[in-house]
Structure formats: C-alpha cells, structure tokens
Amino acid sequence: MEFDKMDNEFDIFDILIGKETDEDYRKKPVIIQGMTGSYGSTHTRLMKAYGSNIVAGVTPGKEGQSFEGIPVYNSIAKAVEVSGAKISGVFVPAPFFLDAAKDALDNGIKLLVAIPEHVPIKDSMKVLEYAQRQGAKMIGPNTPGVIVPETMKVGIMPAQPFKAGNTIVFSRSGTLMYEVSYNLTRAGYGQRLCLGIGGDPINGTNLIEAFDMVRNRHDVESIVIVGEIGGDSEEQLADYLIKTKFPKPVVAYIAGRSAPKEKRMGHAGAIIYGNYGSAESKLAKFAKADVPVAKRPQEISELLALKLKK
Amino acid sequence: MKLLEYQGKELFNEYGIRIPRAHLVSDIEQAKQAAEKLGYPCILKSQLSVGGRGKAGAILKCNTESELGPIYNELMNKEVKGELPTHILIEEIVDMGGELYLSLFLNRSKRRYSLIASAEGGVEIENVENKIIIDVSVDQLSADIAEDVAHKLKLGAKTKASFTEFTMKLSKLVREKEVELAEINPVGILDDDSLIALDSKIIIDDNAMFRHLELKKYEHISELEAQAKKNGFSLVELDGNIAIIGNGAGLVMSTLDMVSDAGGKAGSFLDFGGSATTETIYESLKVISKINRIDAIFVNLFGGIVKTNLVAQAILNAYNSNLICVPVFARISGAESEKAKDILKGTQAKLYDTVEEAIDAMVKEVS
Fold first, then answer.
1. Are the beta carbons of A143 and A194 closer than 8 angstroms?
2. Which residue of B110, B124, B254 is the best one to mutate when testing the A interface, meaning the one whose CB has the most A CBs within 10 A?
3. B238 within 8 A of B272, measured Cβ to Cβ
4. B152: which residues sit within 8 A by CB, 6+ positions away?
5. pTM confidence score
6. Residue A51 to residues A11, A69, A195: CA-CA distances in angstroms?
7. Which residues pair with B187 in a beta bridge?
8. Do B229 and B208 share a structural domain?
9. How far apart are CA B85 and CA A289, in angstroms?
10. Which of B289, B287, B277 lies closest to B247 in space, CA to CA?
C-alpha cells in the first residue's frame, strides 16, 4: 500500500497564525483575489470582522480603489510586495481560477484557499502540480475555506457554528462542516481548526495530507471527518490510520448512504460508479480502522464523547 | 456528462479510433434502410446512458429482415433502469480474433489518470483478475508506456503496434476533451491485427463544458434539470414522493439519508446553493412543483447563513400563488424562527427546530 508523500514540513498553523514570537502572531496578512466582486466583497467584510488581517485585494483594472479600507491592486505581485502576505483567498469565478492561482503561486503565496465551485478538473490538477513545485499548498477548490475559531478565517463559513477548542473538523461538504461544528460546539467540543477539503473530485489538500498537518500537534485532541460518497479518499485515509497507527481519536460522518449510483449529488465529486465511491465501501473501511461513523450529523458529539472516554 | 455509445463513437472516429460501420435510427423506416446497407445479420443497440445494457436485453442480434420490425419495437419500448431510448444504433457484425479491455480514468485519490487494460474483454472489469493498472499522466502518456502495457498483455508483434497506436489516440481524446472516464469494452482484434472499438463509455468533466461548445450537442438533460441549472441549482430526480431541498449538497444528501432511515422515500434532491433568499427558495419550489409524484416538501436549512423569515415568506408566496398545495415540513433553526412560524400560521407548512422532529412528523403524515 502506498500513500501520498507525507509532508510534515508544511505547518498550516504556522502559516495561518504564526508563532507567539512573531510580531504578527494571529495577525498574518491575507490577500483576497477577486475582492471587488459581490461574493468577494461580502466575505471580505465578514472575514475582517472575524479578525482576519485582510491586507490587500487583487482585481485587474481596479488598482487605486479600496474596500473597507483595504487597498486594491491590479496584480498579486504588487499586493504581495506591499503586504508580504503568504496566504491568498481566491474568490474569482471558476473559468479565471487557473490564471489567478498560477499568478499567486508565482509570486510567493504559500497557501491558496480556492473557494470557487465548477473549476475544471484539468485546471485543478495543473494548479496542484504547480503548487507542489513551489512548495505551496492549495485547499479546495469548491471549499468553504479554513477557520481557526475565534482567531481568523479565510473562506465563506459563518461565524456562529464555531468555537475555539481542541478538536479538528475536516469536511468534504461546506454546510455539513457548519452543521457538525455547531453540534460539537453545543456539546462543549470547541475546534482548533476546521478545514473544507472541497466537494470536487480533485482536492488540493486531501484527507491524508490534512491528517498529516495535525498528527503531532499537542493542542489537538481529536479529529472529526465529514465525508461523503464519491472517490476513495475515506478508504485511503482508513488505510493510512491503520498503517501509521494514528495516535488521536477519530470519528466520522458519511453523507449519501441512500444516494443512487451514477448520479452527481450536487458536488462534482459526489458520484458512485459501481462500488467505487459507495458509502458501504467507506463504512467498511472505517470499521476496520476503528473509526465510529455517525448515522446523523447530530450524533457526532455523542460518538466523540464515547471515543474520548475510552 | 455521460455520452451515449454512438456519441462516444463519434468522438472515437474523430480521433482515428476505428469503429464498426453503423447507422443511428429513430424510426422503423430508417432502421430498414440502415440494416439493408449494412447487411444481415446485424446488431441493434438501444442508446441508453445506463450500464448493463447487454444483460438487460437492450442489445440484440437481428438475423433477417423479418426480425427487424419486432426487434426494433422491442428495444424502443424496453425500459432499462427507468430509462427509455430515443435512438437505436444499428451496427455491422465484426469478425474478430479476440477481445481486449481498455480504459483511462481519473484516479481521484492519486490525482492522476489510471490506465487499465486486460486481455479479457467483454466482461465487467471489476470481475477480471488479470488486469494491468498503471498510473499515467495523460498530458504526456508516452508510447513506451503503451508498448509496455501491450507487452504485458502478451499481444503478438503486429497487435502490439496497433495497441500502442490505439492507446495513444484514446489518450489524446481524453486530454483534449477533458474526459473523466473513457472505457472501451470490448476492443476487438481484427484479422489484420488492427483494433476496433466495439463499445464506448465516456464521461466528460461537466465543469469543463464551458470550453467545449462542440460537445454541447450531446447534452441530454430533462426540461426540469435545465430549469434547475439555469437557476444555479443541483437537481437529481428520484422515484419517491418527498421532495428534499436545502442549502448545500452535503446537507441535502444527509437529509436524504435521514428521511430514508425514517422510512420515507425521496422524490427529488435539490441543492439551491449557499445563498438562500426569498427568490431562490421560491424558484426551487417552482422546480419541485413540476414533479407530479410529490406528496410533501422537506426543507432543511442550516440557520447560520439564512434569514429564516425570508424562507417563510417564500413558502407563503408559493402557497398564495397556488404554486404548491402539498404540506411543507421545514427545519428552520435560528434567531428569527419564531417570526417565521408567525408568517406561516394557517398554512400547510410546519416548522421545527430540529431535523429529527421535522422528519418524524413528515414521515408519520405522508408515508
């Protein structure tokens, strides 16, 4: 069994919030590509209100304007030069994603949060290869983004479901990430980080890579996976958990048990061909890896409580 | 987008992949002319997007002219997995010395393409033990790799050369048309050691369709799906009597599972996306109202991102304009849920704070 290369060097917390000794600890600068669009501007306002340090926006042809006091530049090169940002939230429409992403990676961005839905697979694969060559990471596409509760967020998630704590949520679905996090929050399990893997067939950061990012962290107590039908990333993850003796408690939820075959259930990646991508296959693998799977999103916190007691 | 067999074969032809002589027909006169041109016996193949046509009896051999009418009618009226054909492909029978299997598909967890080949063609590949699977980059599939696969398949020298060429052509098609899956099962080996594609299964990346206008003609979505798509909704029609709508694909999928666990049967899946406004909810109810078998509508909204009073207003508007006349069961949590309940007082809509309560109430009333 082979796994994607373990990449322990990439410290997502270091990128998102930094070290206590950093001058800009918890205030790492973030650029928003496509900030002036209606989607980009709405969420820029919300991200800023949440505490994210949004320092610049990029929209070709709009340099000199500003939004909420945030300056807009024509190019990401200029935005990076002025701000020193290593994080970019990409809010451009899918057909423009490839160029925007390459531009960002060419200019020193190390974490690309790819929000748009409907990015062609070929473009995602190109950006992924490009990011790997540059030692950068992509989250998404088709992701709600990433949030460090009560500190900062790069994405479109609402603030209400999340609370700071020591569990982690990795989710292939946006709304279910909110639903499950809210359930955890109400049960007293705050989150250290919630990250949307994305609903597409190709994910810039897949489940195994996401697990690698938090594997050795002392401030992470447990991990919650929100999976769904389609592909075999849950199966691969289960093998990884067994093979590498993953040291922390893990619980899961899988959406789409009752979905028909060969129908795309809303997400480009949520489709079953034969047994490939079926819920049964994922449930069977998780059982082997001793990962309890909730029947409903609302059951997650109960399963986690049981798992933590053991 | 999944192509029908004849559509996939048109693409094969365009890329120089050999296909049998064939004619696409949609009435009996055309069928007669086609069969005459090809000669008897010939094969009639129902053009359906579902798999397992052979087993379902949707591919039949026609030996004589007198058999043609009955076979044609049988196929046109044969529903397979809920699907009826609009066209039949009439094809020549090809003399073959052997059959192979070949496919190229997007391996999601590897984030590369996989090439699968086997010397056992014509059967479901999942049941074949002797197969070769290698990861490839479709951007630069080299002839060396294709040759190596041909070698492992233990093909004769001439067939090996044909296989390499054949595979390179398929790889070019996959790359240029942005294909997620291309399967040819079986690939026929002809007497002169050249290869021929006897079937086609091709799935194009939907998200790449905006730059493949040449493939637009192959799109075959229902009127309802087209209406949903125009609004930016995802719709999947199912066969039960409960319409399920919500904001987010994962959320709607999980609702489907919970309804099904409680004994209900979903009749449709509709995700209207992140922005829940009075308009989007009203439009999604409009789509649902066109599905006849629906006895109840279930609305599941995650509260943090929607204003619940807007949702209530949309439902009220839909009742007032007689767009819907079936009960709506909604899970609406959030700050203004009391206001929402007030708005919908006196209608057939029932609002609940939790999904479980809402589903229980619905299943009791509807099933």
1. no
2. B254
3. no
4. B117, B132
5. 0.94
6. 21, 15, 17
7. B100, B197
8. no
9. 44
10. B277
Distance from CA of A78 to the nearest CA of B (A): 30
Angle in degrees, 0-180, between the axes of helices B278-289 and B223-230, rounded to the nearest 10: 180
SS3 A225: strand
pLDDT tens per residue across span A48-104: 999 999 999 999 999 999 999 999 999 999 999 999 999 999 999 999 999 999 999
CATH topology of domain A160-309: Rossmann fold (3.40.50)
Pairing of strands B112-118, B98-107: antiparallel
Residue type, B1: M
Domain final residue pick, B197, B216, B235: B216
Residue of chain A with shortest Cα separation from B355 = A298
Mark whether A267 is an active-site residue: yes
The answer to whether residues B287 and B224 touch, using CB atoms and an 8 Å cutoff, is: yes
A255 contacts B304? CB cut-off 8 A? no
Q: Peptide bond preceding A292: is omega within 30 degrees of 0, i.e. cis?
A: no
Question: By three-state DSSP, how is residue A114 classified?
Answer: strand
- Asked if residue A35 lies in contact with residue A59, where contact means CB atoms within 8 angstroms, the answer is yes
Residue B187 is part of which domain span? Answer: 98-216
CB contact under 8 A, A176 and B250: yes
- In the block, tokens 């190709």 appear at A202
CATH number for the domain that contains residue B330: 3.40.50.261
B322 and B232 in one domain?
yes
Does the beta carbon of B170 lie under 8 angstroms from any beta carbon of chain A? no
More confident residue, A257 or B122: A257
List A74's β-bridge partners, or say none. none
Q: pLDDT by residue (tens digit) across B51-95?
A: 889 999 999 999 999 999 999 999 999 999 889 999 999 999 999
**Residue among A120, A228, A258 whose CB faces B208 most closely:** A120
Q: Which of B45, B77, B92 is the last residue of a domain?
A: B92
CATH 3.30.1330.60 is the classification of domain A12-139? no
Interface predicted TM-score of the whole assembly (ipTM), two decimals? 0.94
Q: SS3 for A6-51, per residue?
A: CCCCCCHHHHHCCCCCCCCCCCCEEEEECCCCHHHHHHHHHHHHHC
**Is the CB of residue A255 less than 8 Å from the CB of residue A230?**
no
* Torsion angle of the four alpha carbons B212, B216, B217, B220, in this order, in degrees rounded to the nearest 10: 140
Please report how the helices B355-366 and B249-261 are oriented relative to each other, as an axis angle in degrees rounded to 10. 50
Check if the beta carbon of residue A127 is closer than 8 Å to that of residue A98: yes
Q: How many whole angstroms separate alpha carbon B54 and alpha carbon B90?
A: 15
Q: How many domains does chain B have?
A: 3
Q: Is B325 exposed, middle or buried (0-12, 13-18, 19+ CB in 10 A)?
A: exposed
Cβ–Cβ of A175/B251 closer than 8 Å?
yes
Tens-place pLDDT, residues A135-186: 999 999 999 999 999 999 999 999 999 999 999 999 999 999 999 999 999 9
Chain mean position to CA B274? 24
The residue extents of the domains of chain A are 12-139, 160-309
Chain A residues within an 8 Å CB radius of B126 = 274-275
B234 touches A at CB < 8 Å = yes
